Amino acid sequence: VTRIKPNQYAGQQMQSFTIPDGIEEIGEAAFYNCADLTKVNIPNSVKTIKYSAFYQCIKLKDINLPRSIQTIENAVFADCESLEKIVIPNGITLIDDYLFNNCRNLKEVTLPNTIKTIGESAFANCTALESIIIPEGVTAIDDIAFEDCKNLKKLVLPSTLESIGYRAFGG
């Protein structure tokens, strides 16, 4: 077994989960709406996290993304309201659409210099976010990427930036 199937643990009551070593893919909505889940341990074998894998895990606070991860699809952490910090591993080139949408307690985000694009609504409604450094190499920030980040006080944009989408920093 090298993947967690889509919806495999969706809606289950658990507080923590350790993904077994050898798993390479976390399937679509695999942990969707696990409302009590606070901590997930991901091994270095994981390469892909499919869309909405942790969507609406409202108590998820502690997640460590290993360097082995190559792809994090859209809305993986959307509505993870308790998530406070995230370090995106080197090698990731896209912060996909809605990735951290409505993560209202997200305060710390560390982006690697491999990022090229920040997708639509990627950080929208992250109301606790106070500062973010967009690394050199980023060429595009899509529509409403940081909309309604009401407490954003410090923003560092790279010289490589070529386009900023509609209302990327609106609200």
Give a written overview of the molecule:
The protein has no helices and 15 strands. It is mostly beta strands and 171 residues long. The strands form 5 sheets. Strands 1-3-5-7 form a 4-stranded parallel β-sheet, with no helix packed on it. The chain is globular.
Count all strands and give the number.
15
Helical segment count = 0
General form: globular
Order of helices and strands: EEEEEEEEEEEEEEE
Structure, briefly:
This protein is mostly beta strands. It has strands at 3-4, 16-18, 25-26, 39-41, 48-49, 62-64, 71-72, 85-87, 94-95, 108-110, 117-118, 131-133, 140-141, 154-156, 163-164.
Note the topology.
Layout: E1 3-4, E2 16-18, E3 25-26, E4 39-41, E5 48-49, E6 62-64, E7 71-72, E8 85-87, E9 94-95, E10 108-110, E11 117-118, E12 131-133, E13 140-141, E14 154-156, E15 163-164
Parallel strand pairs: 1-3, 2-4, 3-5, 4-6, 5-7, 8-10, 9-11, 11-13, 12-14, 13-15
What attributes characterize this protein structure?
four-stranded parallel beta sheet; mainly beta
